[in-house]
Amino acid sequence: MLPLAVRDRSRPSRRWAAIGLRAAAALVLVAGASIVWRATQRSEPTALAGRDHATLVGERDSVRLPDGSLVLLGPESRLTVSPVYGARGRELVLSGEALFDVVHDAAQPFRVRAGAAAIEDLGTTFTVRADTAEVRIVVTTGAVMVQDSSGRRRPGVILRAGDRARVGRDGTVTLERGGATEDDVAWIRGQLVFRDAPLTQVRADLRRWYGVDLRVDTALGARHVTASFSGESVDQVLRTIGLALGARVERRGNVAFMGSK
Q1: H-helix or E-strand containing 129?
Q2: Contact 200, 231 (CB under 8 A)
Q3: What is the pLDDT of residues 47-86, one digit of tens each?
Q4: pLDDT (tens digit, 9 = 90+) per residue, 171-213?
Q5: 57 within a domain of the structure (yes/no)
Q6: Which of 135, 156, 184 is the last residue of a domain?
Q7: Judgement on whether residues 238 and 139 belong to the same structural domain of the protein
């Protein structure tokens, strides 16, 4: 693993305005997550140490941890709770996407491992998305420390409310001060939002949200998509993406083909 590297893409002229917007939005997000939890709780809503919690394609669900922290899982995501959670620290492993609303306890650090990233709570609400290419972290309130997950002791990077970061496979952190937007957490409201998104991200999200494997002609591979969806059918989503790219789309069951016209 390479030493932790940081690329800072701060937006100082917009930072305070961005934080103000994020702080206002955070109250809505936390309230929304609590509503979802109350609406989806089962007879045993509290997570058990050593257990895996997973969502299916298109499903969101919530987990209340033993310490009272709340995790809202995005579609086709998996959360693994450490067997010693609460006894020796509080450690989780995430694959997919989740929002964490953490009950802070300095004596019991709360850590999430996702891909090449290790995220430690400093008293906060934040989201993490882990896919094969990178890990993305957005902080809505409070702060987190981000490190690579090699296990070596290296200085971490502090993210505060309104900050966004990406961690590549090699542990490189790309930091955007005040760069977070509501689009980053639109999935909490059941919305699928693409803003100049590469087709690799579009493919991953369509698989997680709709269970569709999108196969793209190499001629379109470098294209990006800007679109938003809220409850549309998979055919409507594919049609919209095809129109945005000027491409033809054909779906056969759970496989969709997209190519140049």
Answers
A1: strand 125-130
A2: no
A3: 566 688 999 999 999 888 988 899 999 999 999 999 889 8
A4: 888 899 999 988 888 998 899 999 999 999 999 999 999 999 9
A5: yes
A6: 184
A7: no
